Amino acid sequence: MKTRLSGSLFILFMLSASFSFAQFSLSGEFRPRTELSHGYKSLAASDQDASLFTAQRTRLNALYQSEKVITFLSLQDVRTWGSQPQLVGNEDFATSVHQAWAEVFFSPEFSLKAGRQELVYDDHRIFGNVGWAHQARSHDLAILKYQGNISLHVGIAHHENSNPANNLFDGADAYKDLQYVWFNKKWDTGSLSLLVLNNGIPENTPDGQEVNYSQTMGAHATYPLGEFKLAANAYLQTGKTATGSDLSAYNLLLEATCPRGITWGYERLSGTAYDDTKNKSFNPLYGTNHKFNGFMDYFYVGNHFNSVGLNDIYAKYNYSKDQLSLNAHLHYFSAAAEISADASNYLGTELDLGAGWKISPEAQISCGLSWLFAGDSMEIIKGGDQSASHYWSWLMLSVTPNFIK
Fold it and tell me: Where would one find the signal peptide in this protein (predicted)?
């Protein structure tokens, strides 16, 4: 008995000593969301019924951190309720790896982070984690970082699959090659970020596979002006599209957040007119596009690429007190390029309403309701019936427990 007690105390001592130099946490996420929609992402037909479904994201996250190393593993399951039988056997891809990366610190300022990871920069316009979508977005790449009085990140990725020996990429989506440099400087009164991104999309030709590269270059800035907070984006795109055509496009955003939670803004994403011979449509690439141009996702959420672009004039109101949060967003949409010789550029107006209630630090319930009032020209680019009712509502429970901390 004495030997067993001594052994247990020794193991406990060793564990205590190791955790004094390192930290480990194990957390989870349980997030079911029910959605009711009629005309979500695209106009409904006149005789179309509304859809109702519940989907859920479940995650298990493990984080380890020591003086020189940080590692993170996030396992994820995304499913629609009812898509799996009650008596379920083993299934391929039932659980996937959302993130699996390690970051090694050569010094307090310099580090290398490699593996599958989310990329989030600035306001999510070019790189975002798309957290609203249950599956979210992550990348396979390596980042060399400097974090001092400035931040400087250099990211690089080269993708292969199926048969890496032949150097032909037939991957699921996105890019074959990607390189970017991100610079950020913060002051007490504002911040400035610069981004240069080289994005390579493979194209199969009779002579083999070519990689079409586009370049996205621009800046994101924030600056307080009295009681107002100003934010601005300016990006240019050049090079080639995924199909090899010439690209010349731009994105501009100007936003002012006022006292009492009111924000006014304007964003323009250039587009290609019906009579253009060159592609002028801006592509926000890997951003969290659900965040920007209306919650009904009519624009740039798996759609509206290489199209007429977008002008978005918007007003947003956000309120929070104690456990309660409320928001209301109003968007006025028009095409940035001519749809046809005689079509109006007006596309529609969208109203988004939302509310949330924080039950505890690890549990929250939220809901939302959106309407789109479509113009005649929305029917030209989206199909469907612009005179039908277009709405979307949702109810979501989010629970994020810390199992070990």
Answer: 1-22
